[in-house]
Task: structure prediction
Amino acid sequence: MKRILFPTDFSEVATNAFSYALEFANLIEGEVIVLHSFDLIPMDNQFFPENFTELYDSIELANFEQFKEEIPKLRQIMEKRNYEHIKMTHRLMEGDLFTNIKKSILEDKIDYIVMGTSAEREWEALFAGSNSGSVILGLNVPMICVPMGVQFKKFKKIGYINHYTPNDEKALYSLLDIAKKANAKIKSLYVKTSNSDIDTEYIEKWEAEFKQEPIAFCMIQSEDIKAVELDFISKQEIDILTILTYKSSLFENMFVPNYSKKTESEIQIPILVIHA
Result:
């Protein structure tokens, strides 16, 4: 059974993303592991000789009490969506979020992560600065990032930003498993710029390879990658956008400038990040 990690601080943003975690778990017949990570206040005990231990204990207790109070609310969401059959377990961990997520991935054998993102600028925070942004490039499991305010919508059209590399080919085959379970279609977009070295003949080979699969390939020639991709999301009515991360400056140059100026009110779909 596939395992989905759901990190939460029990905020409205995180709780909203829980619906995606449940729906995705139901889709892939998986289970959900709820992770609440908290930091203890860094202090030097020489300045708190009398109540140092008590203070730390009180912080731990407060987080534990919050954990106990919030879990039933998540179960109410499960019941409302008729997903009581989905197995849900819980982890309360002290430390920074990135470290605890990596630890949980190893210890709990995590296959996917579903996480809400929040900041003044949703898409900038997604790649640089927020909790989600800081973990995306450092993890090796697929991750669904749900922007603030996005309500769940079934995956009928899955967008994929394609660069026609061997890693993209591998990612598409992986994405096909999800698409077929959801009875969805994949819309692949390649933006050809003046610096692109991919020709029509090469793209036709890909189309032939995936001819029997529910994938539609689209190539648009333009120097304005941002405008083309945002127009693609809108006109194709994409429900979730899939991107493949390249752990290099290429990824940051391609995506941080393109999405950082868009707020959550302008882009209302989640992103599925697959690691190269």
Notes: The chain has two domains: 3-147, 157-238. The CA atoms of residues 37 and 93 lie 5 Å apart.
